[in-house]
Specification:
By secondary structure, the protein is mainly alpha-helical. The chain is built from ten helices and no strands.
């Protein structure tokens, strides 16, 4: 079993790299956790007004998820499933930040693209449509997550990817509990493309 433990540990450590925090500090914005929602993800980085930095955060957070799965795939489907879950958990609960990380949307997106790319594309398309229509990033993420397991089953017809994607989706939805309450109260902040 040791290769699976090692794979899980390496995937977790890769996932735990807080790119949003590192990039905003390097760019002179200080601690991103003191801005906006306090999240370390791309949506909160966008609140600095630096769109390029937010885009880079998105790419790197998604990239670490994809990298973990693509590397693990070389060692079989079970290793890929383990890497998919643990790289995601690393982003959510990074040891370097006292286990207080992001909400995992971008990292999960990278995971799903690498794990079952047609499902990933369907999820991204859903996110874009909802985000453009409503300008609520959280609502777009919640909608994409709610539909992702259905996409997985309809597209792959396989239990393992469907189960893995279901686990990621449920955790993301649970992590958005505060956003759900704000959406219901009409208090959720919308996506802004410029500062202020």
């Amino acid at each position: 079993m040791w290769p699976f433990y090692l794979g899980a540990a390496l995937a977790y450590l890769l996932g735990s790299i807080p790119f949003g925090l590192v990039l905003t500090r390097l760019a002179g914005y200080g601690d991103i956790r003191r801005i906006g929602s306090g999240n370390i993800g791309a949506t909160n980085v966008l609140r600095t007004g630096n769109k390029a930095l937010a885009a880079l955060t998105l790419v790197l957070d998604a990239g670490k998820g994809a990298a973990a799965v693509l590397i693990a795939k070389r060692f079989g489907a079970d290793m890929a499933a383990i890497a998919a879950v643990f790289v995601f958990l690393g982003h959510l609960f990074p040891v370097w930040l006292r286990f207080k990380g992001g909400k995992g949307v971008a990292t999960a997106g990278g995971v799903v693209l690498a794990y079952a790319w047609p499902v990933g594309l369907a999820g991204i398309a859903t996110w874009l449509v909802v985000a453009v229509a409503t300008r609520y990033s959280s609502l777009a993420a919640l909608t994409a997550c709610a539909l992702a397991p259905l996409y997985a089953w309809l597209i792959t017809r396989q239990m393992q990817p469907t189960e893995v994607i279901l686990v990621l989706a449920v955790i993301i939805i649970l992590r958005h509990h505060a956003n759900i309450r704000r959406l219901l109260r009409g208090e959720e902040s919308r996506i802004r493309l410029s500062k202020g």
